[in-house]
Amino acid sequence: MRRFVLALLSVLALAACSHPKPPAGRWEGTFDSGGTMIAARLEIGADGQVRVSAPDLLDIGTDDHDAARGRLAADLAGSWDQVAPRKMDFDGETFRKPGGIAPQMVWKAKSRQMFLVVYLGTQPSFRIPMRGVGDFSEDPFN
After folding, report:
1. If exposure means fewest CB atoms within 10 Å of the residue's CB, which of 28, 77, 134, 138 is most exposed?
2. Are 118 and 129 in contact (CB under 8 A)?
3. Is the pLDDT of residue 12 over 70?
4. Does the predicted TM-score (pTM) go above 0.70?
């Protein structure tokens, strides 16, 4: 009995040390507020490698709003093929650069909601809610 308990505790300890697997899939999302606009794409491969792109425009005037959306959508789609996959540390909820501290993405498994964490200059970070997609759209603002 003592050996069984010891073996069970060993298995539980090893399971606690295992790394959670990141959710594979594609997400896209946008942010449009206060003259700041961001269009984002995110893809996590079956191997856990992450591709993310989030071009932004700052200080957008009201007259340029539709043109800015079109420009960001075109930039995002046009540059996606050049986005290299990279490894991220994942603890079951938060993605960080390897060895890093700052969150880059947050995954809420219960609601299946992904958030991209954005840092713009000296402003506080904020989260962009991402929506799961099968294929990326030409215009993420729609």
Report:
1. 134
2. no
3. no
4. yes
